[in-house]
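ENTRY TYPE: paired fold submission
RECORD: A
CONTENT: sequence, then structure tokens
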Amino acid sequence: MYENKTEYIILNNMLAEVTAPVSKEEGSLIYDALSPVANELAKHYIELDSFVRRAFIQTSNSGFLDLRAAEYGLERKQATKATATLNFTGTIGTVIPQGFLVQTVDGKQFRTIDPVTMAAGTATVSAQAVDVDTPYNVAANTITQIPIGLAGISTVTNPSTASGGTAIETDEDFRTRILTTVRNPGSSGNVNHYIQWAMEIDGVGAVKVLPLWNGNGTVKVAVLDSNRLPASSDIVDDVRIHIEAERPVGATVTVVAGALYDVNVACDVTLDGTKTLTEVTDAIRATIEDYFKDIAYQQTVVSYPKISALILTVDGVADHTGLTLNSTAENVTLPSTSVARLNTFTIT
């Protein structure tokens, strides 16, 4: 906005205002007196340009975006901790205390939420990550270490994937939510209202609302986490409690986690010689998974032409043939509350 307010332009403008018959050449008294002033003014214009950008939601960021959001009663959603189910084995009668520490091989630590007593040589208990963010959504059978041993405990593992760990809301996601709230105001329990209520909960990344899904007065709210995957039971419960406190009298609200819909992708690729087949396969997989994340609850169709085009953008791919989605050369239509998940992926 202030591109024309450079030190050079400011200095020359000031020199032009000097009407006295004195030298204005570089090194002259008047030139040397005005040059530092021009330099400082140019710095202020640079800073002023950034302040103007911070004044608008579309261009603001970090703490300044938080301040703009506060004007509409919105707050940035915070990161959440992953939870996992643990199976212990050991001596009958051993008590595993609340807060007992376990971890993965690479040091991601979890603490048990409740105390539990070993019965028949086994015990099952829920645990929560010691820190927030998505890396704690670890795969099944990876929580196997006991850093501080306890007599009577032999082994530990997590039979299923840990879930619910989400990152703090990014500037871009927060900006989108603010603009959506402002441009689509919720009122009297309309669809926009339910979306706003659900999106206010930490860890929620996307929402789909189905009004009248089971008759008059019924509303279904399907929730994804910030990773655009089905929300954990804790997040679903938080959304349900919040909506129950806000919903209109008489509405029957059902809150569920979104569902996954498997999409199988296969195609033949021609390599251009710059990448190996393994490198190309990994890159294509990541590209398709990013596409599925982008369309989650935004589109109800996985586009065959779009995936074809995405494959061609991957480094190392010269061409491809025989692309199929779920064994057909057609778009894949997703159920109403489902998001696409790349299931089998075959590249030859």
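RECORD: B
CONTENT: sequence, then structure tokens
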Amino acid sequence: MLKVRTYQVIIHIAGWLLFMGFPLLFINGGQSDSDFRTLLVPYYWLFCFTYIFLFYFNAYLLIPGLFLKRKYILYGSIVMLLFAGVYFLQPYDRLLKSTEKNMGFQHGPPARPMRDKLLGQDRPSLPRGDRPMPLRDNHDPHGPFAPGEHPPGDKPPRFGPGPNHSPMPFVDSISLFIFLMIVAISTAIKIIQQWQLTEQRAIQAEADKASAELSFLKAQINPHFLFNTLNNIYTLAVIKDDNAPDSIMKLSNIMRYVTDDATEDFVPLQNEIDCIHDYIELQRLRLGEKTQIDIDISGNIEHKKIAPLILMTFIENVFKYGISKHTRSVISIKIWGNEKGISFFCQNHIFPDKNEKKRTGIGLKNTRQRLEHLYPGKHELTIDTENKLYTVKLVLQINDEA
């Protein structure tokens, strides 16, 4: 991460040094002896810092705070105000004029007005004795006239702007063009960075989802549960209990659900509930009379979809830490369906000897992360341990099936 930031800082410094070198190249015409004197011109630094400020102000304040939040009208208004500021400031024109003044650039004597050329006043003056005398034409009643003289009633031709003519206002087009270029580049860079960040988050979310699914698979179908279930089924088969075939079918259903359906983003809620039923029935095979299981599923659960194994996570923890061979215990599991989603509740007694052991499985941390990814702002999870009871309440806003 530090290497990436260092690389970005180097790129920014190199880019601004290149930008600050352009005025030296174009204004001085490549004369290296004038570059140092240009650096002493205050308007040079005004030119540079104006566009540096515009770049970072747009990239790190306007784009994240307004443009990416779709406040386009306010963003456009501020950009237009900045455009007007550059229009009146004219940083490039001020730099150019200040440089010409300080460097003493000469562009040659001003050309004589066209009016003087047309009237013949651009010729070199001669001594009065050497001037050629005009010849009078006897057929011309007016005769020739000296320069500046006109026939009676005639007016001299008018050249140039009239008394009511106003000159065109000057526009520093180069400063405005650089402004548009700076705003466009900073906007493009920030949008590309935001797009890359979004892509990285999506990739990370997919990686977390795959890791969570693998953790769920290991937690739900762990060797301990599988071996105990198979041993119980073997005992049923030895004593030729009628429940043996049904137990094998339930185990097969659980295996199919966690290996096939768990790879989907969302599955029918009924499939999750069926898996919970099969899991509980298989757990009953190893439970004695000291454990009581109360399960209640009601409400509208049809035509709803849910992320697979979300509820199974808490069900597994209930049976892993909420039973004892020596103490009576009650396990409560409730699922209610409504128009907006579902409400889940489970509760079990806390046994200190079990909770002191290191817990295995997905853990509550991974469960919370998965809920944040799949139901951002659409879930409410509450876990408390009051009165030596471990209670989980989960409210999910889920949509119906398409």
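NOTES ON RECORD B: Residues 221-397 form a domain with the Heat Shock Protein 90 fold (CATH 3.30.565.10). The beta strands are 267-268, 291-299, 305-306, 329-337, 341-349, 379-384, 389-397.
STATUS: closed
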